[in-house]
């Protein structure tokens, strides 16, 4: 099942993408569940399947980030060995974690913004995990039962701002630099999230290629660790890290510019596509 959030006729809603049509769950469930995030906290699969709802043409909706309003976006740094090596990072016993703000997210098909204060705008293709069941101190063996589904993520990084200090936050939180989507593929459709090919394309050229089996800390470990210091709630997002091949570590360096098109393709999940537009903030 592909869960989406969207706008149609100026109204925000959510539903299920079924081929070329959208089942508009928000039209009938908004009173109980005002957003997809609220629905994810319930038995969303059964509710989505059993609810009778209007159908819309896919062409009649504009996608939003699948969860436009996550309470938390936890991003994992240097979680593929090739990327750790290319950045000169040390081997660590625990994941490196930084945060994004919800207002940095941008949907599939929309422009990501190149901020005018930098020319070091880098791509980072990633698998995003969306939490469906709340939990704290989640055991490794139970971790995947807390997952609602998976999406593509582009952790667009403003490298010079990321390097201002040892803290990543400024370079990861410019407006519209977190590509997220195009939808959430529910976890029941992904047999093994640690066996997915991930490819990043820039203007049609392959720039990153890996498999999620190559993560240093796998999804179970990330959920276990994150839930040890904070409550994970429905709609929370864990961006699981990018593989090697980022633009900043290439020779010569390869940064994105206005007019470029970047695509994140993950097997069994989908393809997230964003063009790079001129930043307005």
Account of the 3D structure:
- The chain is mainly beta.
- The protein has 2 domains: 2-64, no CATH class; 73-278, Alpha-Beta Complex (Fumarylacetoacetate hydrolase, domain 2).
- It has 6 helices and 19 strands.
- Strands 1, 2, 3, 4, 5, 6, 7, 8, 11, 12, 14 and 17 form a 12-stranded mixed beta sheet that branches. It has a 5-stranded mixed beta sheet with strand order 9-19-18-15-16, with no helix packed on it.
- Strand 18 and strand 19 form a beta hairpin.
- Belongs to the FAH family.
- InterPro entries: FAH (IPR051121), Fumarylacetoacetase-like_C (IPR011234), Fumarylacetoacetase_C_sf (IPR036663).
- Residues 72-276 form the Fumarylacetoacetase-like C-terminal domain.
- Pfam families: FAA_hydrolase (PF01557).
Run of helices and strands:
EEEHHHEEEHEEEEEEEHEEEHEEE
The CATH class of the largest domain, by name, is Alpha Beta
**Envelope shape:** globular
Q: Give the count of helical stretches.
A: 6
What would the CATH topology of the largest domain be? Fumarylacetoacetate hydrolase, domain 2
Main sheet makeup: 12 strands, mixed
Tally of distinct domains = 2
Structural class: mainly beta
Roughly what fraction of the amino acids lie in strands?
Answer: 35-45%
Find the count of extended strands (DSSP E, 2+ residues): 19
Query: pLDDT below 50 for ≥5 consecutive residues: which ranges?
Result: none
**In which range does the helix fraction lie?**
10-25%
